């Protein structure tokens, strides 16, 4: 038997594909919010059985408290999307003080396997890598050349060259009081 995600559920003129998050009615897509879609999937996978409100709430909102009115609204949205409005007949039956039952006849099929996407061959990957690697090589060579030229130019000046050889190089910069605050004038 296929895994739950590999199933397609058909009821009335609808097709429900949980793995693809797709619902269609008479071949046309039906838009549902993610939680409403999860509610429908939960009910359809348990078709014919009463699902308690507590079970639905715990399954759909496991991390927190949600008011029962949220669930009621989801059921209403499902009925409306499937063309049954507020009526219980045909799709979802309300079981008073208990929960809901999906009453439409459901057939379960295996989802058709999608063809696997073509994989890249090593030959098609190599040129892209080679193209990027030579660009990095050129960039590194240019950076190294700039450093060597800069160092040579710096050493060609006699005053800088002698200071650099001795390891002593001091620069004096005049300071000015940009804040114009008299107490900072000593700077």
Structure in a nutshell:
It contains 5 helices and 8 strands. It has 187 residues and is α+β, with helices and mostly antiparallel strands. Helix 1 (34-45) crosses helix 3 (68-81).
Describe this structure in words.
- With 187 residues, the protein is an alpha+beta fold.
- 42% of the residues lie in helices and 17% in strands.
- It has helices at residues 34-45, 53-60, 68-81, 122-156, 158-166, and strands at residues 7-11, 14-17, 22-25, 28-29, 50-52, 92-95, 99-102, 106-110.
- The strands form 2 sheets. The chain has a 5-stranded antiparallel beta sheet, covered by helices on one side.
- α1 (34-45) crosses α3.
- The termini are far apart.
- Residues 124-128 have low confidence and may be disordered.
Provide key terms for this protein.
187 residues; alpha+beta; three-stranded antiparallel β-sheet; 5 helices; 8 strands; 42% helix
Produce the secondary structure layout.
Elements: E1 7-11, E2 14-17, E3 22-25, E4 28-29, H1 34-45, E5 50-52, H2 53-60, H3 68-81, E6 92-95, E7 99-102, E8 106-110, H4 122-156, H5 158-166
Antiparallel strand pairs: 1-2, 1-8, 2-3, 3-4, 5-7, 6-7
Helix pairs in contact: 1-3
Head-to-tail CA distance between termini: 84 Å
The residue ranges in which pLDDT falls below 50 over 5 or more consecutive positions are 124-128
What is the residue-averaged pLDDT? 78
Main sheet characteristics:
5 strands, antiparallel
Helix content: 40-55%
In terms of quaternary structure, what is this? single chain
Which structural category do the helix and sheet elements fall into? alpha+beta
Q: How do the SSEs run, as a string of H and E?
A: EEEEHEHHEEEHH
Q: Compute the gyration radius: what is it?
A: 36 Å
Number of extended strands: 8
Basic shape: elongated
Side by side, the strands of the main sheet go 4-3-2-1-8
> Approximately how much beta-strand content do the residues carry?
15-25%
Number of helical segments with 4 or more residues: 5
